[in-house]
Specification:
By secondary structure, the protein is an alpha/beta fold. It has helices at 39-53, 78-92, 107-113, 116-119, 136-144, 192-196, 204-216, 242-247, 256-264, 284-292, 309-314, 321-334, 353-366, 383-387, 394-417; strands spanning 30-35, 58-59, 68-73, 102-106, 126-128, 149-151, 174-178, 180-181, 200-201, 221-225, 233-234, 254-255, 271-275, 299-301, 339-346, 370-375, 423-431, 438-442, 448-452, 461-469, 474-482. It is built from 15 helices and 21 strands. It binds S-adenosyl-L-homocysteine, iron/sulfur cluster (SF4) and FE3-S4 cluster. The site of FE3-S4 cluster has 14 residues, from helix 1, helix 3 and helix 6.
Length: 484
């Protein structure tokens, strides 16, 4: 992330994850999978690779040799689904693919459209929702017998906690770890509660074990994933479930702040990140954990969506502008050097110019390190679609979006200029895409920094002095290695 283009409407879509071949054997069948949408989907593809890996499937980056082609899809905006439809057609008409290849749609679009996907132009053989991946072996058996297969059952319990993900497309340094699934928030614009089902937290011990294992394998950073990580709650006590668990006092449960600390204590050389925080739920204890543990990164993704209280209410975000401002102030007070990023939607139902200006003003006031900005896209089945009119014209939505993108680009440029001649500790993640003599890494604040490789290695922590900047990246030179 961090490229200018990635801040545009499409910033969370269309990223293609191709699996690296693992355990390559000539005997087994081959799976090719592309992931779209949010990090949760990328993480889920690693569960899918694991489940089918147990059935003898190896993964391939070359679609032409695949027996199974899966698209792990996103429904968040109309454009996301359009991308998948186009992709399915391209795949269907690709003359180089195997003759008897089977095509599957997984993830959120599978959940939203269910069996309908099978009817549409006969592009698809298998449809599996986000909670059905354990059933993939049976579904794949069915399609191998020439049938069509659908499983879109959502679960209140499934967290795949015992499945060891097969790390795919991995740089060997950073990994995603899902800590919860689903979402109970019901923001009126959002399709996620329908595609991902009820919120449920994963067993804390299994999360910590997965992180320990990653650390042992040489990984240096884990990102704990959930749609709303601040509402993570887990207890060994089987009597504490559902509402009882949510309402139990903090000292009787493992909440997100405690989980963060458990993971941070694995090793000072293992960085911990997390996403996404919800302004209504983030508590002081999470901020204290970031302040007190150097390896918990100073970066909070705290989507505002809008800067106007009436619109926030209509979105059912359950906080006001004042509440959001107070959360930002509190983060700055507890962790002065913390980077904060946001998601913004322009042109939500009935948004006036004046209300849009409140969002503009919010962005100027907070000066986010990063913003993902979108214009509102009505999603079938959501509360907004049922209750409100999508009455802001596309032109207005887009011009409002352009206005905030321009502002954000300028802010990024200014913030990055302020970093020149400062020294940052960077975790080296890989070789720069633009120049193979350079490394690419990120600092604690999630800012991308590029610097000449010299004799440093991927996975090193290196102090880098910033020499130049663009609106998206810092460019510098290594000063020294940091040993933990
Ligand atoms: N759980 C996260 C968001 C997940 S979806 C949170 O609550 O912040 C990622 C982002 O997509 C959202 O923050 C929102 O800004 C955007 N988004 C969701 N639904 C949308 C819609 N219908 N139209 C445009 N953008 C949308
Ligand atoms: Fe969607 Fe709101 Fe849940 Fe985020 S918190 S996933 S925006 S319903
Ligand atoms: Fe998209 Fe589903 Fe994620 S709708 S944003 S892939 S939870």
């Amino acid at each position: 992330m961090g490229e200018h283009e990635e801040m545009l409407e499409e910033s969370r879509q269309g990223e293609v994850l191709e699996l690296n071949p693992f355990n390559e054997t000539q005997t087994g069948k081959k799976l090719y999978i592309e992931s779209y949408g949010c990090q949760m989907n990328f993480s889920d593809s690693e569960i899918v690779a694991s489940v089918l890996g147990n059935e003898g499937y190896t993964t391939t980056t070359n679609m032409e040799e695949a027996d199974l082609v899966f698209l792990n899809t996103c429904s968040i905006r109309d454009k996301a689904e359009e991308t998948i439809r186009k992709r399915l057609k391209t795949i269907k008409h690709d003359p180089k693919k195997k003759k008897d290849v089977k095509i599957g749609v997984l993830g959120c679009m599978a959940e939203r459209l269910k069996g309908k996907l099978l009817e549409e132009e006969k592009l698809v053989d298998l449809v599996a929702g986000p909670d059905a991946y354990r059933k993939l072996p049976e579904l794949v058996d069915d399609i191998e017998d020439g049938q069509k297969a659908v499983n879109v059952l959502l679960s209140r319990e499934e967290t795949y906690d015992d499945i060891e993900p097969v790390r795919i497309n991995s740089n060997g340094v950073t990994a995603f770890v899902s800590i919860m699934r689903g979402c109970d928030n019901m923001c009126t614009f959002c399709v996620v509660p329908f595609t991902r089902g009820r919120e449920r937290s994963r067993n804390a011990e299994s999360i910590v074990n997965e992180c320990k294992d990653l650390h042992k394998k040489g990984y240096k950073e884990v990102t704990l994933l959930g749609q709303n990580v601040d509402s993570y709650r887990w207890s060994e006590n089987r009597n504490l479930r559902g509402r009882k668990l949510r309402e139990a006092p903090r000292d009787e449960v493992i909440d997100f702040a405690k989980l963060l600390i458990m993971v941070a204590e694995i090793s000072p050389s293992l960085r911990v990140r997390f996403s996404t925080s919800h302004p209504k739920d983030i508590i002081d204890e999470v901020m204290f954990a970031i302040r007190d543990y150097k390896n918990i990164c100073e970066y909070i993704h705290l989507p505002a969506q809008s800067g106007n209280t009436r619109i926030l209410k209509k979105m059912n975000r359950t906080y006001t502008r004042e509440w959001y401002d107070a959360k930002i102030a509190r983060i700055r007070e507890v962790i002065p050097s913390c980077a904060i990023s946001t998601d913004i939607i322009t042109g939500f139902c009935s948004e006036t110019d004046k209300e849009h200006q409140d969002t503009v003003e919010l962005m100027k006031q907070v000066r986010y390190e990063l913003a993902y900005m979108f214009f509102y896209s009505e999603r079938p089945g959501t509360l907004a679609q049922k209750k409100f009119e999508d009455d802001v014209s596309e032109d207005v939505k887009k011009s409002r979006l352009k206005e905030i993108i321009d502002i954000q680009t300028q802010i990024n440029k200014e913030l990055n200029e302020e970093e020149i001649s400062k020294i940052h500790e960077v975790l080296v993640e890989g070789v720069s895409k633009r120049d193979e003599n350079d490394f690419r890494g990120r600092n604690s604040q999630n800012k991308v920094i590029i610097f000449p490789r010299e004799n440093y290695k991927i996975g090193d922590y290196v102090k880098v002095k910033v020499e130049k900047s663009t609106s998206a990246t810092l460019i510098g030179k290594a000063v020294e290695i940091v040993n933990y």
